[in-house]
Amino acid sequence: MTTLAKHEGSGLAIEPGQARFTETQIAALTQIGVEKASPGDLEVFFHVCQRSGLDPFARQIYLIGRQVSELGEDGNWRKVTKQTIQTGIDGFRLIGRRAADKHGHAVSVAAPEWAHPDGSWRPVWMGEWGNPVAARVTIKRGGEPFTAVALFDEYKQTKRSGDLTAMWSQRPAGQIAKCAEGLAWRMAFPQDLAGIYTDDEMGQADNPEPEPAKTGLASVLGDRPITDKTRGALFKLMGEIGIKEAEDQREFLTDTLGREVASRSTLTEAEGVKAGKRARAIQQGDPSAEWIPSFGAATGEIVEAELVDEDALIEQAVALNDPSLDPPAGAPS
After folding, report:
1. In the chain, which stretches have pLDDT less than 70?
2. Which of 45, 124, 119, 127 is nearest to 87 (CA)?
3. How far is it, in rounded angstroms, from Cα 41 to Cα 63?
4. Structural domain containing residue 36
5. How many structural domains does the chain have?
6. pTM score of the predicted model
7. What are the phi and psi torsion angles at 317 (to 5°)?
């Protein structure tokens, strides 16, 4: 087992006989971003740090928490934090070469190749060809080759719009090559790299859900700002089901609409109707519409509130053939 680099006098050095992180080390991990990790997660992380010889306090290896949906024992879906142990490609190279030295094996890494849409493999990638289909890297350990192929579409990192992030847009060949190299290192050294992932491999896990195609009311209303009538009815109903505090309201709207809602002024008419329908469903006791606030909204008296009827709006839009849904001249407001 490789000994971790020591932080002399800092109290952060992991000693050879140490069994788990000390309170000082846990405080340091929290300071550098390790949050909401259970004692079990920390014990696993400690074991991997010892086994790999990477130093968490020098940020050679880290614990990343991600929100995922999980079905609870009560049958309801909820967001939970799952921890992933990650390092950069340099961490994989260091672990692999240390393991090779330990066992007296020669190790070599071949230059990456990229798959062109025409089916050929290219030793260099030209920007004019667009994005590569895949990249492959071969690592030899003791003369035995381990070749890994990473498909671009499986590892690319995207924004909510579906477009590539800046890094993947600017250097797609380099990013997918690092993913392929990470896979090859794991194939060559499975025991040493078990349970550890590179940043480039796991970046796609943070891809936001793509923007859904607009259907129903959204396809008719487009991005029309919410009307005063719908806004008033929505916030009246939210108050009546106990969602009264501004922070709770923003959280409810964010959860319902699937996007961050920083202000009510950013709501569209379609979003107002959608949020209102969920609020009304909660009022009527529909379990599928249940929402549990993080901040604990108080429960208020339940009364009926009028909301804009979605079907009526669509019928009106079709009749008028006017996506803006402005009522005809002389019609009552």
Report:
1. 1-10, 203-222, 292-333
2. 45
3. 9
4. 1-87
5. 3
6. 0.55
7. -65, -40
